[in-house]
Structures are given as structure tokens and as C-alpha cells.
Design brief:
The complex is a heterodimer of chains A (272) and B (245).
Chain A (H helix, E strand, L loop, with lengths): L2 H18 L15 E5 L7 E7 L2 E12 L10 E8 L14 H16 L9 E3 L3 E13 L4 H14 L2 E8 L2 E11 L7 E8 L2 E4 L3 H6 L2 E7 L5 E8 L5 H28 L2
Parallel strand pairs in A: 4-6
Antiparallel strand pairs in A: 1-2, 2-3, 3-6, 5-6, 7-8, 9-10, 9-11, 11-12
Helix pairs in contact in A: 2-3, 3-5
Chain B lengths: L28 E5 L7 E7 L2 E12 L12 E8 L14 H14 L11 E11 L4 H15 L9 E8 L2 E4 L3 H6 L2 E8 L4 E5 L2 E2 L3 H30 L7
Helix pairs in contact in B: 1-2, 2-4
């Protein structure tokens, strides 16, 4: 057993003892997310960007927009792609090289949350049907790790997209040509918010920090849209949830999601 | 350097450059020591519109093990640009350019760090370019030195860095992106101000021997300006009174 595992085991019993008394290791209520700090347009060279701190987890998202060829079976829709990368400076255990399963899951879950909410209206991203469309790339990097990357990445992507200015292209001689000074807001509708909950023992905690993340038995990430619908979910970890627990998590994700959506909106409005 | 016929006015009749600077004036530079929770040492630099984050880990175990050296610690540097850091989205995979820059930055830092007290270990320097605007390698090198000092790695001297170059037939300090694209020469310099040693030197462009000498001198002058800001960043973190005696 490594030294880290021993520490995790000791921490876990401490976390569990505290939870029995209704407390968390960092003093939060069980359904209380950490402080969310948002810097909008942190990367002026990107078409949209945000630097987000959730507790001490820090992420940066930059959105790049450029003309692209449509996917063969979707000539009447633009392209939306969301990636996430765990940078080696974010934690001592992160190594350079191709991403592992955890990071691939992270990127796919964040992508799914934004995609399935239909936040970005890809049908408005067509320059010429079947020939040329607009590609929207939201690239997220994790700069500092303190647990719950799912939500920190998701918030960064959402705020960056809400603040994205889209250039305009027109077809000239079969080539998409930039129209100067014709920027508009990226067509977005609903605001997806993911809320990740960890199950530790028989307790459900919202927005687990690094210690809670290392001690949890299982987790679930639930994304809701502005109407309070659930649009995406991902369960992880080595244990399961009961039906009652999952229903409770669904309710929590709507309630906590609504608070966070207000914070994301305020950050966006404050910048305009 | 194919942009010599550019129509952009790089230097006007009053000796003012395209971004409003004088010929010997660097861009706005802000350096902050620390800032990352997990890294053993870190630094953030804004050098004009460049925004760069550096994290240092170590001395720590070497993986893969065959890279370790029984006589000394090793230094590893990764320079990496985010996909959103440049005009057109960059493929996230490391490019040949990034691999070369990682190597020259490593070799610019090696003369400064004292690693023989840490055999079989590695010091890892991770450089992340959040936004690039010409001169990233110098800004990255300057920030990496501060992050190494912040990590408590013993050093012989700080490595300061600044580029000099030539645009509109004039030697200028701190070449920006436009001057790099349309100018005549770009010479990034890394320099240890107390040991008076140049540890990074590259050049692309054409310079006469006289211009070459002037360019190196101009670059070293810029390094000395950067050095003061590096010291200030560390003093602000480690002395409550900001280093004022």
C-alpha cells in the first residue's frame, strides 16, 4: 500500500465520522457547492473564454470558431466539439502523453452535457449546406486540481460559450470568406449546468473536493437545462446508488443547478 | 522572414513602433510568483498579450526509471500551447516547434539550476501558453526561472529573457508578433545577469556584424529589465513588505 493510500484511508474515516455528525471536512453543508469564481474573456485572442475556480480547482476554457467541412451525414448542421485536458502542472500525479480513461471520460461527459442540452444551436452554423459549416471548438484545460473536474470544466465551457462572438463567413468562389465587422453572439439557448454528487458511505455530498473525491464510493454527474429538465447523466465509481438516492440526486441537481445558473448568468451579464 | 514587403508601418518617422512603443521599450510585463495549489513552485507571466502559466514539480522520483541519473537530478521541460492560444485553433498534440522550444528552454535553465544534490530525481517544468503573441519562449523562460525559485530549487542565478530584433532597418527591443512576422530579424536571448552568461540564443533573420552586436546588447538590456521584475515577483511573495528594507 502506498503512502498516499494510507493517507486516503485515514482521511476517509475522518470524512465519514464527520458526515455522521452532519458535517463535511471543509465545513460546508452537504448540499453546498464550493465558491465559484469566474473571469470572463480571460483569453482575448479566443472567440470566447472563461477562467473558472471552483474551490481550488481551476480551469480555463477557450472557444475557437472557424469554417469547417460538415460531417458527411449532417450537411445541414454546424460542428460543436468540446475537449478537456488535464495539464501536468495541475497535479503531481498527472503525466504528459495521451489522455487516460479518466480524462477521456471527463471530456466526453462535459461535451455531452453541453451538446445534449442543445445550448449551441448547430442548425444556425451553416455557411452553405453540405459544403461548408461553422465549427465551434471549446477546449478546456485543467490548471489546478482539487476534485470535481466535471463541474469546473462544464462551467468554464458554458460561460465561455455564453460570451462567444461568432465571425461571419460567406461563400465566394466556393471558399468560405470572412465578412469583416459582422460578428454576432454565438446562437445559444438554454444554459446547461452540471452538478456532481459523491456518495460516501450512505451520504450524498454535492461538489466533492479532492479529499472527498478520493474517498467516495460512487458519484453521479447530472446536467440540467434552464427549464429544470435533466439532459445528461453519468454515474461513476465502484459502488452503486439505490433508486431513492438517484431520485434525491436528481432533485439536488435541479436545486443546486438553479443557484449555479444564476452565478453563471451574472458573470456573463457583468461582462457585457 | 518573408514579410519584408509588408505595408504595415513598423516604425514611424518619430521612432514610434506599431504598438506605440519606443525602439528600446519592452511591452508591459507582469510576473507573479506562486498561484497554483498543487505545484511545488509556480509562476504566471503576462508579457504584452502573452499569458503563460508555469508549474514546477520536484525534485521527485523519475518515471520512466531509465531516465534517472545516479550522479545528478535531471531537468525536464515541457512547453505546450493551448488550442485556443493562437489565431487559428492549434492541434493539441505537441508540434515539432513545441518540442524544439522545450529543449532550448531546458538548456537555457540547466546552467542555472544546481541538481547534483538530488541524484536519481527529476525536476519537471511545465509551461502552458494560455495566449501567445510573439516572444513566448522568452516570456516562458523568465516565468520558468521564477517558478523554479518558487519551488526552492537551488540556483546559481536567475535566468532572465527578452528578445531583440530588427524591423524597419532599426534594432528594436522585445519583438512583438507583427514585428516578428513583418520584421527583418528576431533574436530571443536568455541571460543570467549576475554571472553575465547567455544561456539561450537563437536568431532568424539577417544582421550585419555591427547590427548583431547591437542586437545582443539590446537584448541583454531587456533581460536586465525582466530580471528586476522577476526579483520583484519573488520579493512580493516571500517578504511581507514587498522586499523594501
Amino acid at each position: 500500500m502506498t503512502q498516499q493510500n494510507v493517507i486516503d484511508d485515514l482521511k476517509k474515516s475522518q470524512i465519514l465520522e464527520l458526515l455522521e455528525q452532519g458535517k463535511r471536512i471543509d465545513g460546508r453543508a452537504l448540499d453546498e457547492p464550493r465558491k465559484l469564481t469566474i473571469e470572463v474573456n480571460a483569453i482575448p485572442k479566443a472567440n470566447g473564454s472563461a477562467r473558472v475556480r471552483l474551490g481550488e480547482t481551476e480551469t480555463v476554457c477557450g472557444v475557437k470558431i472557424q469554417p469547417d467541412r460538415p460531417f458527411p451525414d449532417m450537411g445541414d448542421k454546424g460542428i460543436f466539439i468540446c475537449t478537456a485536458e488535464l495539464l501536468p502542472l495541475s497535479h503531481p500525479s498527472v503525466e504528459t502523453g495521451p489522455p487516460g480513461p479518466d480524462v477521456i471520460e471527463l471530456a466526453r461527459v462535459v461535451d455531452r452535457g453541453v451538446r445534449e442540452s442543445h445550448m449551441v444551436d448547430v442548425s444556425e452554423l451553416v455557411i452553405e449546406k453540405n459544403k461548408s459549416v461553422v465549427g465551434v471548438f471549446a477546449d478546456i484545460v485543467v490548471v489546478d486540481y482539487d476534485g470535481n473536474l466535471f463541474d469546473a470544466c462544464s462551467y468554464a465551457a458554458t460561460v465561455a460559450l455564453l460570451n462567444t462572438k461568432m465571425p461571419k463567413w460567406e461563400m465566394k468562389d466556393d471558399v468560405p470568406t470572412l465578412v469583416e465587422g459582422a460578428e454576432s453572439d454565438l446562437p445559444t439557448s438554454t444554459i446547461p449546468v452540471s452538478v456532481t454528487m459523491a456518495k460516501i458511505g450512505n451520504f450524498i455530498v454535492v461538489d466533492p473536493n479532492a479529499d472527498e473525491w478520493a474517498s467516495m464510493d460512487s458519484r453521479v454527474t447530472i446536467t440540467t437545462d434552464s427549464d429544470g429538465n435533466i439532459v445528461a447523466m453519468q454515474k461513476g465509481g465502484h459502488d452503486g446508488f439505490t433508486l431513492d438516492e438517484i431520485i434525491k440526486c436528481g432533485e439536488l441537481s435541479v436545486k443546486v443547478g438553479a443557484q449555479i445558473r444564476e452565478t453563471l448568468k451574472q458573470a456573463t451579464e457583468g461582462s457585457q | 522572414m518573408g514579410g519584408r514587403d509588408s505595408t504595415m508601418v513598423l516604425l514611424d518617422e518619430n521612432g514610434i513602433r506599431c504598438d506605440g512603443r519606443k525602439i528600446d521599450e519592452p511591452r508591459r510585463i507582469m510576473i507573479k510568483a506562486g498561484g497554483l495549489k498543487n505545484a511545488d513552485g509556480s509562476a504566471y507571466i503576462e508579457f504584452g498579450d502573452n499569458k503563460i502559466l508555469v508549474g514546477v514539480y520536484g525534485p521527485r522520483d523519475v518515471h520512466p526509471k531509465h531516465m534517472s541519473n545516479t550522479d545528478t537530478g535531471i531537468l525536464r521541460v515541457r512547453y505546450h500551447m493551448e488550442p485556443f492560444s493562437v489565431g487559428e485553433r492549434k492541434n493539441p498534440a505537441p508540434s515539432r516547434r513545441e518540442i524544439e522550444i522545450s529543449k532550448v528552454i531546458k538548456e537555457a535553465l540547466l546552467p542555472a539550476v544546481i541538481l547534483d544534490k538530488f541524484p536519481r530525481t527529476a525536476v519537471d517544468v511545465f509551461i502552458e501558453i494560455l495566449q501567445a503573441d510573439g516572444g513566448t519562449r522568452c516570456a516562458a523562460l523568465a516565468a520558468a526561472s521564477v517558478a523554479l525559485a518558487d519551488a526552492g530549487i537551488p540556483m546559481r542565478d536567475m535566468v532572465a529573457a527578452c528578445a531583440a530584433g530588427k524591423a524597419a532597418d532599426t534594432i528594436i527591443l522585445d519583438v512583438n508578433n507583427e514585428e516578428d512576422q513583418a520584421g527583418q530579424a528576431d533574436m530571443p536571448i536568455g541571460y543570467m545577469p549576475n554571472l553575465e552568461k547567455i544561456t539561450l540564443l537563437q536568431l532568424d533573420g539577417v544582421l550585419s556584424p555591427e547590427e548583431f552586436k547591437k542586437c545582443v546588447e539590446t537584448g541583454i538590456h531587456g533581460c536586465k529589465i525582466v530580471y528586476e521584475l522577476q526579483k520583484k515577483a519573488l520579493q512580493e511573495k516571500y517578504f511581507q513588505n514587498g522586499g523594501n528594507q
